[in-house]
Design brief:
Blueprint (H helix, E strand, L loop, with lengths): L3 E6 L6 H13 L5 E4 L2 E8 L2 E3 L1 H9 L6 H4 L2 E4 H4 L9 H14 L2 E5 L7 E3 L2 E2 L1 H7 L3 E6 L4 H14 L4 E7 L8 H11 L4 E5 L30
C-alpha cells in the first residue's frame, strides 16, 4: 500500500469523503497509523473553535493520530467565501509542509481533494496543480449515475495526461434506483487503466458507518503500469 494517496472524484458530491473514510478505516484495521488530510475545504462553518468543515471533521474522526484540526485542514473557506475562493491566494507551500509533517507521523496519509480533478482553487488554478507538484498517486471515486462513464474516462485521461499514476478507482452507488448498475461497473472495469478497489452500496448516513469491508487496499496500484515508488 502506498504511503500517500490523493482522492479525487468524477464530480463534486460523488463520495470522496465516504471513500476516504473507508480507506482510512481499512488501513487502520491493519494496525497502521493513518491520518486524513483535507488541504483545502470549502463550505466551512464558524464554530466556537473557528472555521470547521464537515468533511475534514470526518477525516479527523477516523484518523488514528490525535492531531489539531488545523493539521488536518490547513485552509478552510466559509460558505460565504467559497463562491469567491478562486480570488483568494492559496499558499501551496503551506499545503506541502502540512503533508510532509503528517507523513513523518503516519504510515499512510489519505489526501482528499475538493470538487473534481480540474476544480479551480485560486488564480484560476486547479488543486491538481499541487497534486502534480507533490507527485501523489491518485485514487478516483466514480459516482455511479447517468453519464458517469464519460466523466470517469475523461477524469482518468486527465490524471494520466498530467503524468500521475491512477492507482485505482472506487464505485460509489449514489443513485440506488439506477438501472444497469452491473453493466456500468463491467464497462468501467474494462476501460479504466487501474484496478477496481471497492464498491460502496447506497448507504444512508455513510459518513457515520464502518466502511472498511467495502474496499480492498491490497488492490491499490495492482495493475497500474505507471505505478512508481512514491
Amino acid at each position: 500500500m502506498l504511503k500517500r494517496v490523493f482522492i479525487t472524484g468524477t464530480d463534486t458530491a460523488v463520495g470522496k469523503t465516504v471513500v476516504s473514510r473507508a480507506l482510512l478505516q481499512a488501513l487502520a484495521a491493519t494496525g497502521k497509523r493513518v491520518v486524513g488530510y483535507k488541504p483545502v475545504a470549502k463550505g466551512s462553518k464558524m464554530t466556537p473553535e473557528g472555521l470547521r468543515n464537515k468533511d475534514a471533521l470526518v477525516l479527523q474522526s477516523v484518523s488514528s493520530l490525535t492531531l489539531p484540526y488545523e493539521a488536518i485542514n490547513p485552509i478552510a473557506f466559509s460558505e460565504e467565501e467559497s463562491s469567491v475562493a478562486h480570488s483568494c491566494a492559496i499558499n501551496y507551500s503551506l499545503l506541502s509542509n502540512g503533508l510532509a509533517q503528517l507523513g513523518e507521523q503516519a504510515d499512510h496519509v489519505v489526501v482528499e481533494g475538493t470538487g473534481g480533478w480540474r476544480s479551480l482553487m485560486n488564480d484560476l488554478r486547479p488543486l491538481s496543480d499541487w497534486v502534480v507538484q507533490e507527485q501523489l498517486p491518485v485514487l478516483m471515486v466514480v459516482g455511479i449515475q447517468e453519464g458517469c462513464l464519460n466523466h470517469a474516462l475523461l477524469t482518468a485521461q486527465a490524471i494520466t495526461s498530467d503524468g500521475l499514476p491512477l492507482v485505482g478507482w472506487v464505485a460509489n452507488r449514489i443513485n440506488p434506483g439506477l438501472a444497469h448498475y452491473a453493466e456500468i461497473i463491467e464497462v468501467l472495469s474494462q476501460k479504466l487503466p487501474a484496478p477496481l478497489v471497492g464498491e460502496l452500496p447506497y448507504l444512508p448516513r455513510a459518513e457515520q458507518r464502518d466502511l472498511a469491508k467495502w474496499v480492498d487496499v491490497t488492490r491499490l496500484g495492482a495493475t497500474d503500469p505507471l505505478r512508481a515508488a512514491v
